[in-house]
Design brief:
By secondary structure, this protein is α+β, with helices and mostly antiparallel strands. It has one domain (41-191): Roll (Nuclear Transport Factor 2, Chain: A), CATH 3.10.450. It is 26% helix and 28% strand. The protein contains four helices and six strands, in the order αααββαββββ. It has helices spanning 2-23, 56-67, 76-82, 106-117; strands at 83-91, 102-105, 123-134, 137-147, 156-166, 171-180. Strands 2-1-6-5-4-3 form a six-stranded mixed β-sheet. The longest helix has 22 residues, at 2-23. The chain starts with a helix and ends in a 21-residue tail after the last strand.
């Protein structure tokens, strides 16, 4: 009797294991695809001029230089070469229609500003650059003045808040956020006039 029960228990165990194996989903033999390694930033934008990105002072000069000039086309590939592809440009200047910030991609900015520059002379330059750095990041408060011609009185002034990233070989623009001066929002005295020393502090 005990022998029969042992044989029966063994048979049930074998059948149970066989059923479990049949019920289990087959293991996939297809290799899982690996995520593609991130592309180098330089391969995603036009080639930068080495002198434009060799230092923070250099890239700050390039930002203002590339958008300044007489009416006509700007070198937008040069502008793109200064920025990471996902950079944002944001105006917080209020107008009668809206007080909401206007967030633009690099191409949004090129499309909007390009239309204006095609028929208007525009010259923008820094008044004072206040630079703060830590490791691979930098923040610059850059007061600016904008003119229709190089020797004219500025028609507006304001402050650009510019964030940069250093990738080990060069600086990149991550974001430019700006606001314009107004009677209710004048430039701080320390940002309102060019010092006798170099513009960057």
């Amino acid at each position: 009797m005990k022998h029969s029960l042992l044989v029966l228990a063994t048979l049930l165990l074998v059948l149970t294991r066989a059923h479990a194996q049949q019920s289990s989903p087959p293991q996939s033999t297809v290799p899982q695809s690996q995520p593609a390694p991130p592309q180098d930033l330089s391969s995603r934008v036009p080639r930068a001029k080495p002198d434009d990105v060799k230092s923070l002072d250099a890239i700050l000069r390039a930002i203002y230089d590339v958008i300044s000039g007489p009416a006509g086309e700007r070198d937008w590939n040069r502008f793109r070469s200064l920025c990471v592809p996902e950079a944002r440009l944001t105006s917080t200047a209020k107008n009668a229609a809206s007080s909401a910030p206007r967030l633009l991609t690099v191409d949004d900015y090129i499309q909007r500003a390009g239309k204006y520059f095609s028929t208007h002379g525009f010259y923008e330059s820094a008044i004072v650059n206040r630079v703060q750095t830590f490791g691979n990041i930098a923040q610059v408060f850059s007061s600016y003045e904008s003119r229709n011609a190089p020797n004219e009185k500025p028609f507006t002034r304001g402050i650009n808040s510019i964030q940069f990233f250093y990738d080990g070989s060069r600086w990149w623009v991550l974001s430019i956020l700006w606001d314009e001066e107004s009677p209710a929002n004048p430039l701080p005295p320390e940002m309102a006039s060019k010092p006798s020393s170099p513009v960057s502090e």
